[in-house]
Amino acid sequence: MPDVTGLWLVAAWEWRERGVELELQRYRAPASAGAAADPGTAWTPRDRPAQSTVFQVFEAPWDGIGSASERRAYFAAGAAEGLWPGCAFHSVRGTSMEALGQSAQERAVIGTLSAPLAPSSAIRFEDAASMTVTLVDQSADLQPTDLVGIAQGENKLLVGGEVVQFCRAEPQGDGVWTLGGLLRGRAATEIEALAGHASGTPIALLDHRLVPFGDSARAASGNPFAALGLWDEAPVIAQLANAGASLRPPSPVHGRMLPDPDGSACLSWRRRARGQWGWLDEVEQPLVEETETYEIGIGDTHSPFLMATVGEPRFVLDAAQLSDLQANHPGETIWVRQVGSFAKSAPCVVGTLA
Fold first, then answer.
1. Residue 102 pLDDT
2. Measured between alpha carbons, how far is 192 from 202 in angstroms, rounded to an integer?
3. How many helices, marked H, and strands, marked E, lie in the chain?
4. Least confident window among 3-12, 49-58, 90-99
């Protein structure tokens, strides 16, 4: 009310030509309004210390979803058990940082190998094999699966540059897990499986909690990246690991060198394709690259003394050429590698000059 203090209750109102006419009554608080009440006991949750960001950035083999020409690089950020408000990602150039407009609010499942992981031929499922890992977040949970789940792509763990799938997950306490029933060398990473991994090798669960690069071209820049959270005293810097892994075609397999009665030799192999994690029955693997091209070399892969390029998975050394090579370069290795749209595969040994 103009120039009148207090609280007023609208008892009635009516439309008039000049406006709305209100019938008001002064509001008076009931006598019990000021009675004392029990304030109760406040809920005080357990204090948890603020945790600093732990950060990985890596490229992983293409999973076959989306465009085959885009680099598949990911941010994996998390923290130890406790309060963590997430982090924002930046590109580092010299002493300056440029915000990428991407962030993580959910912890990725990351950690390290607690003990060395022995080399593996990565040919079959290894039910007796196991590895021990330590997760950054001790409250993180890993779920077991079976062979059907493995076939459907569950429990994919990046160990260094190798993709491993596991069936069993047994917690040992304090963030330590024993993972058993391993399928090694997935997505054509059998070369990394054959090398094995040392204790302390970074690991990351390949699932929805990873943050894919919004601008895949930045991943190829060679510049490091940084993660910075609200409670981080300084940016956490990481260099891109496994650069080129998503664009590099898998190496050919089943290389053979079969002599013919006329003195020649037929070289043959089977190709594989990026993004094809399983072998298709009764049909040829889809060709992901723009063209089907192979390089055949003899000698060192960096400086071969003989090289040929073919467009099919076979090559014939005639009798005269084979005899000359055997006489001048005995014991040298014959290898083949696939030439992809963006990179070349690792070489596959086809045979040896006797």
1. 93
2. 14
3. 4, 22
4. 3-12
The residue whose two tokens read 């196991």 is 130
Res. 207 pLDDT band, cuts 50 70 90:
very high
Structure tokens at 70: 């885009």
Q: What is the biggest distance separating any 2 CA atoms in the chain, rounded to whole angstroms?
A: 118
Q: For residue 148, report the phi and psi dihedrals to the nearest 5 degrees.
A: -65, -45
DSSP three-state, residue 86: coil
Structure-block tokens of residue 145: 């699966």
pLDDT tens, 90-131?
999 888 999 999 999 999 999 999 999 999 999 899 999 999
Q: How far is CA 346 from CA 21, 62, 71, 255, in A?
A: 88, 16, 18, 13
349: Cα separation from own chain's centroid: 29
Three-state secondary structure readout of 35-61: CCCCCCCCCCCCCCCECCCEEEEEECC
Where is 12: in which H helix or E strand? Answer: strand 8-16
Strand partners, 92: 97
Q: Determine the Cα–Cα distance for residues 162 and 122; give it in Å rounded to an integer.
A: 10
DSSP-based three-state secondary structure for 247: coil
Residue 90: which of 236, 244, 246 has the closest Cα?
236
All domains of the chain in start order, with CATH: 110-208 (no CATH), 253-352 (2.60.40.10)
Strands 162-173 and 156-159: antiparallel
pLDDT, tens digit, 9 for 90 and up, residues 230-261: 889 999 999 999 999 999 999 999 999 999 99
Other Cβ atoms less than 10 A from the Cβ of 72: the count is 24
Q: Is the pLDDT of residue 76 over 60?
A: yes
